[in-house]
Design a protein that fits this description.
By secondary structure, the chain is mainly β. Helices cover 6% and strands 35% of the residues. It has a single domain, classed as Virus Head Decoration Protein, Chain: A (Beta Barrel), CATH 2.40.300.
Length: 181
Amino acid sequence: MSDNFRYRRGDTKPILMVPDSAAPIHVGDLLFQDPTTKKARTAAAMLNQGSQTLNQQTLHDLFAGVALQRGGALEPGEVSFNLNPLPGQIVVATAGEFEFDCAATAFQPGDLVGGCNNAANTALAPQQVAKVTALANSIGVAVPEAAAIGQSCTSVVVRIASTILGGGQQAAVPGSSSGAV
């Protein structure tokens, strides 16, 4: 993956989180807080729960926000980036509006948006979203640009809401059917 500055507008209500050193985190990645280690992990590093719906629900339950800074592990072949060592903490947006890629979909303002499985259907994509119908699957709501309302588009602006820190809807029991993330 690569760093993508996805921020469009609004107060990001930034926080500092310790990144998990097992996988790279890029600017623009959807992040969750590991329930055991309490470290930030990219959605792509979450264990596959068996279906996109279960993956979305698990991301919703543990959603921290969007990475505003690079961290975690280096990509294969990298020695460092920005001529600095990886930071011990990264800045994470827990609110605000961010533009994400999606499959061609028509969005109306307020449509629920959740994570999206990767092309292989083996895990969530780190920087892609999908329209969802249940609050328990969502990480935010669509706020499409005026010209894009009701039009089929391959990107959408999403007003995110961190479940764990930003006032997003809490599920009764965080986690998934498998109990592993």
